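Shift notes (night). Ran Deferrochelatase while the centrifuge was going.
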Amino acid sequence: MAGVSRRKLLGTAGATGLVLGAAGGAVGYGARPAEATPLASVGTDEVMFHGKHQSGITQGLQARGHLVAFDLAAGAGRKEAAALMRRWSETARRLMAGEAMTQDDTDVARDAGPSSLTVTFGFGHSFFARTGLAKQRPVALDPLPDFSSDQLDKARSNGDLWVQIGANDALVAFHALRAIQKDAGGAARVRWQMNGFNRSPGATSHPMTARNLMGQLDGTRNPKPTESDFDRRIFVPSSGDPSWMADGSYAVVRRIRMLLDDWERLSVAAQENVIGRRKSNGAALTGGTETTAMDLEKADAQGNLVVPLNAHARITRPDQNGGAAMLRRPFSYHDGFDADGVPDAGLLFVCWQADPLRGFVPVQRKLDRGDALSQFIRHEASGLFAVPGGAAEGEYVGQRLLEG
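Came back to this:
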């Protein structure tokens, strides 16, 4: 199978679908799924590995995701890290193109096309001391502050290296996860790993903002690539400091457990007051559609604000946080039930920004002080990772750092 494209196994029908899928895979952003396409063509969608930015940031949500953090092995340093990133980049390039691994392919994804596979790599705060590159560590990678609502498990937080894998086919996603883990060899070991999912492309009659496990549309006000300040908010500028982070971004990763039993005891009206939006269509309580601007000053006949002061949608608005913005690109998760039948389920929250101190941190601090949603969620794991820009042809991700 080495060197043979999995897409060739799809036959003539797959080749026809590739034209349709290419258009579908090129649109969408953050919390909006890729264009709805016939399920028969989902497997043909391909995302390019090489480019200005790494994949998995601005592409539409994928149906299946894996987040995994690694720690470098004892004695491994800059040389071993560079070799690992070279291996990982080549594996990601091949799998994202629908090709098999160069050797020892498991054939898990043998019958599938690329299925919008993306593989994204990042470096944690501890990576730089381990590799003798402490002077190259960005200030923006300083540890996140403590938040009063945090109940973090340190064993499932942070890490030297972070990999995000997404695809619209579960077997394709697992195949990539297994390949990355095998490629780590003796250079790094898994620190933690989490599995997530989203609605499958084509499951709705038209593209729409995704719903989370609380049933709410999640990501309505996500920044859009068409906005003039999108790149400034989400990506480090080409002249940024340090230079190796040019065109990169910072990922905040949080495992947020949803207390679904408590949430589901609320009436729909009560849930809508917690969020500040209609559950049915995501429209603000002040009226209109999902995209209609929220009227923060509107009051009812009794003089009460229609959108409560502690409503989640009010608190998280950029214009209520000094313009702070982040691109949300989460996965839902469900890890079973405890002995009492309580679901261990919620959100693998991933957000992207040019600077977490101007994106995630100010918003989370404000949420920490009085968000109505806080009594129904629990932050159980956390990580912050520097995600360098994309690799050019012939380069690997992180090469400017590790060989600079």
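The two ends are 36 Å apart (CA to CA). The first strand starts at residue 64 and ends at 72.
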